[in-house]
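Ticket #4471: structure export looks truncated?
Reporter: QA, pipeline team
Priority: medium

Steps to reproduce: submit the single chain below to the structure queue and open the exported record.
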Amino acid sequence: MTDFSTPIQFGELKLKNRVVMAPLTRSRATADRVPTPMMAEYYAQRASAGLIISEATVISEEANGYEKTPGLFTDAQVEGWKLVTDAVHAKDGLIVAQLWHVGRVSHPDLLNGETPVSASDVKQAGYVSLLRPKREYVVPRPLEISEIQAITEQYKQSAIRAKAAGFDGVELHAANGYLIDQFLQSLTNKRTDLYGGSVENRARFLLEVVDALIEVWGAGRVGVHLAPRGDEHDMGDANPQETFGYVLEQLGQRKIAFFFTREYLAEDSISLDMKARSNGVPYIANMRLSREDALELLASGKAEAVSFGKTYIANPDLFERLVEDEPLNELKFENMIGTDVAEGYIDYPFLNKQLAES
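Actual output as written to the record:
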């Protein structure tokens, strides 16, 4: 019976087990978005996962919406990421880079005074994360077609840099209300050109970027992160089953390595419908899964792997704890994002002292 310890092949990626570390923004890079030695230790501590998906990594300075998130658009950032990938590989781990553009989920104060961009001029409700004093989101500027093409090239160049940095592949962040999701979902895409209107047009940007990543890595080392419920950053779609079903049909034709969704897997799960239409693309499930939920998903074949986010922050040896059904460390919310201290980052205890020191 398939369980946490069962190996699996995702395209060209050979996972030693079915437990995946989800991408987790921790904002621990330098002001120039360069990964640090402490980040290398953090990821290496968690290398017993079958696969690590890196924290979201911006493809350009204009793509950012948060301070101190890492990038993959300068030589210094490549060198910083090499520290991370070398440390993970030294512990027999596997790590892919999640490539990211936030689109409208930003503010001129984070963009040298420039207006954030999006598919259309649809303003996000609420306040910009982590900026103080609080600032409302602004009306974004719709991208010109030439700019869309330029951003696609930025994704490609970041994928090239990810290879130079020693990653094992890339995951496209097309979820959670960020730029590509803003094109994909009908609530934020009001365009009337080749990138708006029909499902095929709204998915065009996503698929063009996927094709660019495949040019660099091959389909077997490219994954895609999706959010069919549209419950992050004021998103929504008129017909998510149609929209995301079409996307998975297209990704299945391309034979990508995996797709990842953040969704409660209830009876009306959009993700399971997507999986049925994906032509066998491996599925990584994620959304506050309990140990029992995760085992059921694996045993039933509903998902090929299971992913954990905040649980991995507090439990660097989460794979071992899941296998042995051991208690979990509690998450410390202090110092979770944006600080430079070890506390709450690399000081969570391991069950096995020898494992912690290996």
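Status: closed, not a bug. The export was complete when the record was re-opened. Leaving a note from the reviewer for reference: DSSP finds twelve helices and twelve strands in the chain.
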